[in-house]
Amino acid sequence: MSVEESNLPGVGKMFAVDIGDERELRIVIHNTGKREVYLKEEPDADSEKLFELSDRLARTIGTILDGSYFQPVSMERIETKLDKDSVLEWVDVCETSPAVGKTVEELEALEEFDISIIAIRRNKETIANITSDTKIKQGDKLIVIEPEKGHGKLTEICKG
């Protein structure tokens, strides 16, 4: 899947999303916040407008699609793209992981990672005010910001 971004001077931005079978979804975000969604069925065809959304409605639908309200159980990895370079990811720590017993500071200091652990989900509670000496425990879910390029390395360590 590829996403191409184009400036539309005086209008806003357009994102062209390759959805397979040579089809493309085009999303125009106006400077006013209005969103328009178009479908281009073939490379040489014109785009057909599917619908239009207000800024508020688009943001609500976006959070639903992003999984903020519901995460399907079958998902192996939960991640959210923050921008073109960063990903917010939920990483499960299994019992055989070398991360168990390490502090947040020790995990963040590993040279192969460029990560920030921003919270830990433990026993159905979220620990949002973690410190550098907070210890990682078996069964924790780490909420991490990491670069898009090479993300997933921490997931491999936490699997054990």
UniProtKB/TrEMBL annotation:
GO molecular function terms listed in the Swiss-Prot or TrEMBL record: monoatomic cation transmembrane transporter activity
RCK C-terminal domain segment(s): 76-160
Gene3D superfamilies on file: Regulator of K+ conductance, C-terminal domain
Coiled-coil annotated residue ranges, if any: none
PANTHER family: K(+)_H(+) ANTIPORTER SUBUNIT KHTT
Protein name: RCK C-terminal domain-containing protein
InterPro entries for this protein: AAE_transporter (IPR050144), KhtT (IPR026278), KhtT-like_N (IPR058776), RCK_C (IPR006037), RCK_C_sf (IPR036721)
Higher taxonomy: Archaea, Methanobacteriati, Methanobacteriota, candidate division MSBL1
Recorded superkingdom: Archaea
One annotated GO biological process: potassium ion transport
